Structures are given as structure tokens and as C-alpha cells.
Amino acid sequence: MSSLNQALSVALDNRHSLLAELHAQGTDCYRLFHGSQEGASGLTVDRYGPQLLVQSFHNSLDRDSLLTLQAAIQKHLGLELMLVYNDRSHGNSRVDRSDPVYKADDAALEDLVGHEWGLNYRVRGRHAGQDPLLFLDLRTARGWVKDHAKGKRVLNLFAYTCGVGLSAAAGGAREVCNLDFAEGNLLVGRENGKLNPQLPEMQFIQSDYFPAIRQLAGLPVASRRSQKLPSYVRLEQRQFDLVLLDPPAWAKSAFGTVDLLRDYQSLLKPALLTTAEDGVLICCNNLAKVSMEDWRDQVLRCASKISRPVRDWQVLTPGADFPSMDQQPPLKTLILQL
Ligand SMILES: C[S@@+](CC[C@H](N)C(=O)[O-])C[C@H]1O[C@@H](n2cnc3c(N)ncnc32)[C@H](O)[C@@H]1O
Known about the structure:
Order of helices and strands: HHEHEEHEHHEEHEHEHEHEEEHEHEE
Strand content: 25-35%
Oligomer: single chain
Shape: globular
Bound molecules: S-adenosylmethionine
Strand order of the largest sheet: 9-8-7-10-13-15-14
CATH architecture of the largest domain: 3-Layer(aba) Sandwich
Number of domains: 2
Number of strands: 15
């Protein structure tokens, strides 16, 4: 047995009870192999409903290894999955796309549906963006939101494909507002809404984070080095009972720079002000090199500095399908009770 097959076999055995639990709760999207922590750095294997998504970030997988891996997983799960292999190890893939194994079946590349916490999600193996349409390590946070959203006004910041918003709607939120500047991501969010017609409709705000959150927080919209600002969506000052702040590690726009390493505070401060008294702010930091302790201290300090002290806080960790040997998973999530 190759070392990859051995590592995969251990990973599948380690997930025995987790998978039973996930299936029972209506979830068929999860990580089956988290290579960096389970013996094959740069390789991830995820199930997204009927699809098996294999991605390599350092070295391409050869044809035989890929087929052996698919066969082992299908045997373990007792079902057939449609293979999509995205090799991201050399910019935009150097594998031979004329080979059907690498090309993927047409059926595997169609728009599919996966499930999480009983909700339907759009699954698309290849699309214009880099990431799959649902980040699996945020599943526990979506579950928490579903359990705590009843009657709440919910704001989902950096909403991407609106998974957190959908979970809030499923949990009985009074109002759900998803904010992101990327039209394509919000379009998938709208599709996710339509895939769950039993839920109340969500709102979508297509806007840059900085002008939107500053207006909601009642702060002036500042220009960068007195440059003229591009036009932006006008919003009234207001607060929400449950706010999720899950920004990318780094992104630059005409209105500011999202930089989780150097300046978490400029994202956090207006988000705190937009959270109602007695409300909850869930904030995330996906930068591996920032430790939970340092970041948490920074977050708590920022909150007291602007007189929004945190009454209580709780750490949420990703599920057991994202094992972390040093107990420091890259995605850190804090639930702040204000
Ligand atoms: C890492 S994803 C966030 C994941 C998301 N919270 C989820 O639940 O899956 C980053 C998102 O931030 C958005 N984004 C990046 N910079 C932005 C900005 N300045 N204003 C608004 N959205 C931004 C991107 O379009 C993308 O959808």
C-alpha cells in the first residue's frame, strides 16, 4: 500500500463516528482528507454531496493514485461519487485535460446540490473562482448561527455565497442581510436561497465593506489619502442582534485594505458598533500565523477601547474533519457576547 493510501485509510477510520453524526444531521459536505495534517501536505479531499473534490496545491496526483483514492473512498462510504480533480500546483494546472480522469465527466461538472445541517447548497466543481462555493471549516459556526438566530436581526459580513445567512434564516431569524462586494458570490447566495424555498427571503447588499459598515455604524466614510471616493451604496445607521465578521486574509479595494495581520481593528471596530447592546458578534481570523491568544487579546482590547466591552466570549473550533496536530487550526472563531 502506498504511503498516500495508508494515510487516507487512517483518515477515513478517524472519521468513523464523525461521518455517522454528520449524515444523521443532514450533512453530506465534509473534508475526508486534510493533507497538511494527515500525511500528504498540499492535498485535500472533500465530499460535496454527490461530488468528490480532490485538490492538489503542491504536487500533481498521477492518474492511478487518483483512481485508487476514489475507489478507497467509495468503498469506505458505500456509495459512488463523481470525481472532480483540480490541480492547483502549477498556477493553472498542468495535467493532461484530454484524459477523462483529469477532465471529469460532464455530469460531475454540472450544477449539483450538497447538504449541510439539512440545508441545500449549490455545488460547482469548477467555476471562475478558486474556492469551492462552501467553506467546510466554517460548518460549526453555521451550526451555531442556526441554533441561535431565532427572532434575531442578522448581518452576514463578507458573506461570499451566504451560507451563514442561510443558516440564520433556517434558524428563524427575523431578518437576514448578506453583504459582499462580489456580484458573482451574491448570485450564488441567491441561488442557495432559491434551493431552500421553505425559508424566508434574505436581503443582499452588494457593497464594499468599508463604506457599508461605517455608514451602518454611524461613522464617516473616509477617503484614502484625500483621494476622491468612488460612488457607494447609501445605507442608514442601524444595528443588528447577531453579526458575523469573516473577512479574507488580505484584499485591497478603492475604500481600504483588509489586512488581518496588520489591521484587524479597522474591520472589527465598526462591526462592534453595528452590533446591538446584548447582541452577539462572531468574528473570524483565518490567518494561520496569528495565534488564537494574541488575536483574542487584540479583539478584547479593541472592544473595551471603544466602550463595547465583551461580557463573555467563547471559542468555536472547526469540526473533527479539520484535525490540527498543534490544536491551532488556521480558522479561529470567537463568539463575543456584548
Ligand atoms: C473568505 S470569503 C468569506 C467567507 C464567508 N464568510 C463564508 O461564509 O463562506 C471572502 C469574501 O470577502 C469578499 N470581500 C473581499 N473584500 C471585500 C470588501 N472590501 N468588501 C466587501 N466584500 C469583500 C469576497 O468577495 C469574498 O466573498
